[in-house]
Each structure stands twice: as structure tokens, then as C-alpha cells.
Automatic annotation (TrEMBL):
Gene3D superfamilies: P-loop containing nucleotide triphosphate hydrolases (3.40.50.300). This is PutativeABC transporter, ATP-binding protein. GO terms for molecular function: ATP binding; ATP hydrolysis activity. The keyword Nucleotide-binding applies. Keywords: ATP-binding, Nucleotide-binding, Transport. It comes from Actinacidiphila reveromycinica. The keyword Manganese does not apply. It holds the Pfam family ABC_tran.
Amino acid sequence: MSESGRTPLLQAKNLRLGHRTGRTREFVVAIDSIDLTIDTGEFISVVGPSGCGKTTFLEAVAGLVPVASGDLLVNGTPIKGPARNRAIVFQSASLFPWRTVEQNVWFGLEVQGRLDEAARQRTRQLLHTVGLEKYMKARPDELSGGMRQRVNLARALAVSPDVLLFDEPFGALDAMTRESLQDELLRIWQADPDGPKTTAVFITHDVTESVLLSDRVIVLSRNPGRIVADVAIKAPRPRTSAQWRLDPKFTEYCSEILDALHPEQKAARQSVTATSTESSV
Ligand SMILES: Nc1ncnc2c1ncn2[C@@H]1O[C@H](COP(=O)(O)OP(=O)(O)OP(=O)(O)O)[C@@H](O)[C@H]1O
């Protein structure tokens, strides 16, 4: 059990990650000496400068990048490779163009040999949740970028993973679509009255997005990535986007995270009286 009394879903202990590159296969460190515990049901965002190792961390949790040293555990078990209990939502929706929307959503269940009536029912329910039930029979090329990303999200949720990994899922969308999908994700995440069963690790460059969605925001330093701040976002759930964005505490959290990201700019930021909350790393 962790301090919160909840079961740790994910644990990193003195974790070091990197990549072998070039002809000499030289090891380049991406993440260094990270200690992190994530509880079941928590929504965690990871922010940090470009190249600090956010994607590398996510890929290691997905089992796509090996652990160089230290430990990386899911449910107390070392991660050795990809597994059913972890699903990724990438920046660009990687849908099969020849399959309909519903066939894309139930793809993971089909691969697992679980495509029964309950799976079809779950698919319909998820498409209703993401507002796409009318498009069940459509092909991906008939959808907008935002709609495709909704299908992507429904597909990841369909396999009921223990942990859902988001690699800047809204990064390629225009500002309005991004905001509406952020609101939607917030709603979906809080839809279960017993609390979310899925744990989320969400990579983003957008500080406001991290504060909007998360229970905690982890701030990484420049390459190699080390944790420089772990900010608990104490906003009650269910929270609504419109209400939470206008709360003065929302701006305070954004400033705290920006200060951790760019300590050299802290004094300049404090001298600006009217600060904008639309901030990217
Ligand atoms: N496949 C790879 N082979 C070699 N080096 C890599 C590979 N992928 C990433 N790196 C290096 O590892 C470091 C961390 O990269 P990573 O993509 O994890 O950072 P990031 O924080 O996600 O960056 P960004 O925000 O720009 O997406 C960088 O120095 C990068 O050049």
C-alpha cells in the first residue's frame, strides 16, 4: 500500500532509461534516477522540455523500451514487454482505414478472442460515450481528426486496460477541437460513479491541459529527465472544465508548474500582473 492507502499500480525505483544509437550503439540516457509511485485510478500528467524523455518513459511502461537499470513495476511485477493491461493512445489516430469505426473499436477484443455480444454492446456504449454512435458504420476517412482521435480513445478503453498511456493525444489538433476533447476526456474519466478503475499516464506540452485533467503533475528537467516537481492538483472531482478553468487555484497551479519548468523565468513571470493561463512548455 502507498501513503494514500491505495494500491500502487505503477512504481519506478531509481529508474534509468535510454537508447542505443549510431554505429557504435552508444547508450544515450533519456531518463535518470526516477522514483515514482502511481496509485490505481490516478490521472497523472508528465510535462517537461522537448527531449527530456517523456515518450521514452511512456514507451518503457508500455514495454517497448527496456529498463537500463532500476525497477519499473506494474502491480508489483517487473515490466518485460507489452501486455494487455497497458494500452497507448498516440498523437495521431492509428486506425485501420479498411475497417468501420465499430470494427476499429472492437479490434483489441477481437485479437484477444473476446468478440462476443458483450463486446459488441461495450463497443456501442463506448461510441455513445465519445459521441460517435451515429458513425459506427463509417470508415475512418469519413471522420475529422478530432473524431478519429475519439475512436482511438474508445478503442483503447474497449480492452479495459489497468493503465492507459497517452502520448500527447491532442497535440496535433486545432485549439478548439483540442479543448472539446479535453472536456470530453474529463467527463469520460469521471463518468463511473465508483471512481475510475483505469490509471492514466498522460504526456503533454500543455500545462493548462495537465492541470485541467490530472490528480498529479510530474515535472521533468531537461535531458536527461529527472523529477523536479510532483504537484498534487487538489480540485474536487467530478470537476467541470468551465468551472475549474475559471477557479483562481487553476492559474496558481499553472504558475507553480511553469516555475518548476522554467525557474529562470520565475521573477519575470511574477512581475507580470495579468498572466495568461494558455501556456505551453
Ligand atoms: N529511438 C531512439 N533512438 C535513439 N535516441 C532516441 C530515440 N528516441 C528518443 N531518443 C532520444 O532520447 C531522448 C528523449 O527523447 P523522448 O522522445 O523520450 O523525449 P520527449 O520528452 O518525449 O520529447 P518531445 O517532447 O520532443 O516529444 C532524446 O535525447 C532523444 O533524442
